[in-house]
Amino acid sequence: MKKIIIFISAVFCTLSCDKELDIEPQGALVEGVIEYNEKWVGLQLTSAYAILDGNPGYFWAPASNWALGDVASDDFHKGSSVDDQPPLNDVERYTTGTTNIYTTRKWESIFEGISRTNQTLESIKKAIEEGISEEKLVVAGAEARFLRAHYHMDAKKIWNKIPFVSEGLTETPSNEIDAWPLIEEDLTYAINNLPEIQRPGEATSWIAKAYLAKAHMFQNDYAAARPILDDIINNGPFSLVANYHDNFNAEKDNNSESIFAVQNSVNDGGEGYINGNRGNRLNHPYANDAPGGGCCGFFQPSQNLVNAFKTDANGLPLLDSFNDTDVTNDQGVASDESFTPYTGNVDPRLDWTVGRRGIEYLGWGAMPGARWVRDQSNGGPYVAKKHEILKSQEGVMSAAGLPQYNAINTPLIRYSDVLLWRAEIYAENGQLGEAMNLVNQIRARAANPNGFVKKADGTPAANYVINQYTSFPDKEYAIKAVRFERRLELASEGHRFFDLVRWGIAPQVLNEYVQKEAPKRVYLNGANFVNQKNEYYPIPLDAINASKGALKQNPGY
């Protein structure tokens, strides 16, 4: 046995949205005798999993990356009011600075996760030295290395220039390296040493394969990603669920489509909210009669996103003209004034993704419009939906007394993600029929009428018209259709900004978006995405200062 001193600390902060964001300083010095055995390794591994939800980053470091991945894209606005959480205004306007709390807390959260995985791996080494059989600890070590890869991958897509921090280091390593080979090494080890089946939320070899495929996709290494994706599709345990919304229903967590998700729970003993979905705690409609108890109006869908769900007479997306005219909205219309929702054709996934006036909202009644929105003039007329519970689940799948916390898992990779990655490769390689068939699998599920949002009388809540493609006439069309499908299928799940960056089209798409959206959202006037700069966020100044010169800033900052 070894005697060690463990210092457990929390990052202190003074910024708050309101009283819900006040953070009590926490810290303790604990001295004790630790026996390095399977139990201790298990506790450390649990700690490494626990920070998947973004804590201790709280609201500023959500696992879903809704702030850095969606608000920075053409899908979502910050929402709320202009003077609440002003650092998020900078994210939306592409002026994020080196002291922005959203990037600072995200960095701290990610590297705390990495630290915990490395502590687990160090404990495994010490346990083996103490005589514990290496065989008993192989799976724990593989899980720790998978998690280390996950955290580094999250950092890589946000900052690009990151250090790879492995166990045993005493100083911050340089970030002027390519971290991808080391991430891939961890994932390959995990694939080779993890079982195919574990308890929900624990890493498996299939999950590690999906992550390795994702790593290759982010490097545009389609040749390396292809066989891994084919293996997952042909031999893996995953499948699309019948109804789209089952992916966002707390009672259907860990279904066949969920590859890897942050496990959220409430009312599970102790403080009933502590394991709830903290990252979305302020992203609820701004009304007491809505899910979330009125806190706090952030994360509002853009008109551009809503328009993307329009379909033509054949039930297909308007790939080039979707944003020419707007889906009817209630901007400036009071909730007690009459309003007629849009009657044109829309993809049914729209109303599982976006709350819009006059459309049924998860059993809470028809969304009443302005009364649920904190400030329409700032964030627009829409509210988000995927992270909200059904009315029938109130107090059960939301924390009793603290309804802003709920038990809906945070999806990180879904099987639809895998299918669309493979479709992307087919399209890039000119295999148009194969690409179309995979996109059509996604669209066929969306077209299941049993999965439509319904009115109280059981009829569809809107004019849902969606069909499958009959042809992809050329490679350019196929690539555009696959990318558009990713936007529709995965909206609000934190992927959009990072997809635009890896496709190399972020400057064009986002500057066109800002130009069209700015007349609706005046704070976007003058916003500009700078090519070769805004693809990645600035390394936090605190991290650079603490590294004693090891970390170098990203270009342009």
Sum up the structure in keywords:
two-stranded antiparallel ribbon, globular, mainly alpha
Describe this structure in words.
With 557 residues, the chain is mainly alpha-helical. It has 17 helices and ten strands. Strands 1-2 form a two-stranded antiparallel sheet. A two-stranded antiparallel sheet has the order 3-5.
Fold topology:
Elements: E1 2-9, E2 27-34, H1 38-50, H2 66-71, E3 76-79, H3 86-93, H4 101-129, H5 134-159, H6 180-193, H7 205-218, H8 222-235, E4 258-262, E5 298-301, H9 303-308, H10 350-353, E6 354-355, H11 376-379, E7 383-384, E8 398-399, E9 402-406, E10 410-414, H12 415-428, H13 432-446, H14 475-490, H15 496-502, H16 506-517, H17 541-546
Antiparallel strand pairs: 1-2, 3-5, 4-10, 6-7, 8-9
Helix pairs in contact: 1-4, 1-5, 4-5, 5-6, 5-7, 6-7, 7-8, 8-12, 12-13, 12-14, 13-14
Distance between the termini: 48 Å
Strands, total number: 10
Number of helical segments with 4 or more residues:
17
Segments where pLDDT lies below 50 for 5+ residues? 1-31
Mean pLDDT: 93
SSE pattern? EEHHEHHHHHHEEHHEHEEEEHHHHHH
- The assigned structural class equals mainly alpha
Rg from Cα: 23 Å
Largest sheet: 2 strands, antiparallel
Helix % is 25-40%
The proportion of residues in beta strands is 5-15%
Biggest sheet strand order reads 1-2
User: What characteristic shape results from the CA principal axes?
Assistant: globular
